[in-house]
Amino acid sequence: MGEIPVFNFEYSDVYTSKIEFMTSINEKQKGREQRYPVWTYPKRTFKLKFDKTSSQREELEKFFINIAGTDGKFHFTWAVEKGGNDKTYTCSFNQDSFEQLIQEYGFSQSSLELITIDDSSVVDGGDFDFWHSAETSFSVAYTTIKDKIFTSHYQNKTYLDYPKRRWILKFQKNAETRKLIENFFISKRGKFRSFQWKWDKDKGGDNNTYNVRFDTDELNLDINDYGFSEFEIPIKEVFVSSNPLSETEKDEIIPRKLLKIFTGQNPINILDNETLETIYFDGETYIGAPLTYGEITKDDNTAVNKINVQLSNVGLSISGIIANRGDIITNSKAILTQVFLNVNTNEIIQNLSEIIYVGRCNNLSLDYETASVDIETKLGGYEILAPIMKYQTSCQVRRFKDCRCGYTGEETSCDRTFTTCQRLGNTQNFMGFPTMFNELVIKV
Q: How many Cα atoms sit within 13 Å of 280 on the Cβ side?
């Protein structure tokens, strides 16, 4: 790989910045919540605006073509003089087209959207005691279950003892204070962690302190000259668990899924849907990438239990494996494991892992976006009812160039004979009995 190019084009002092997390929330009894972050690190999006002369426009357009046309990445430094943090991010363009408004003499106005993962170290955000406008949106709400059809015996039931409060706070901040609020939002991982906030009486409040969380996973900022910004943040009341320990554990231990497909010396190791680049488990590296899986299903006709797994093939990584090594995925062993991550250290907690499913891969299908494969377990967990090897001279490997065959050369077919295996230099993996008789007649 070559050196990563640098995006160093001058952009307007007025632009937008967005910090985005992904949090899963399960409502519990009496309005309590079970929350955990799907992403460890936030996604940052910068929408930059440009006013360019004809020659400057051509340079910017050329950069976009060179990067977007090769699926490449580039470095972008969020400059302090633009209200940034002076950190350099590895970005991608978040658009397929570069639209420009061209005026007289080739002068143009345009915008580009940059996305990146902000893997900066998370620091303690302190207290949420930032000044906000007295103009505040406030509401109280119950959660009510109602009959889906209105009848003479229409029923509804509220399962909260008390309503939950919600506020939308408005801020006008300079660059320095805005960055402190950004850091606080990141330290709470969007909706994930709760915190305490006092509703001051001079802001129309009651001077009480409430347990709250952000009611959004996105912090949208319109940034103006010198980094000044006006923005809104919704916060929502949280009913804390009666057991403080369980509330702490909820905020520190989160589940993650790991998929391992045994494809010889270079297994496929995936960490599900994570913004963490890598994580280590049992001495091996797992890569954060798109991973989805369905329910475990049973086929009574074939006595097979299976689970369908889908991996990203956008970068043609799975297609590349098939092209270079053959279909080594089909019939390979696969394990889906659940581990638990310490959200403070981003490390797996030892001795808490559990295997969710074990089987062999089948029904591989590929397109430009997705690689889909079934992980099958036969006969309720017993993979073999009788020996699958036959006592004959030809090789018993099911698929040429799979994980048992082990051949990685340019040959595309095999007649399963020992002679061909010798010619290909692969006799150490031959699974037949070449010294036995091709035909034996026994007279009685």
A: 3
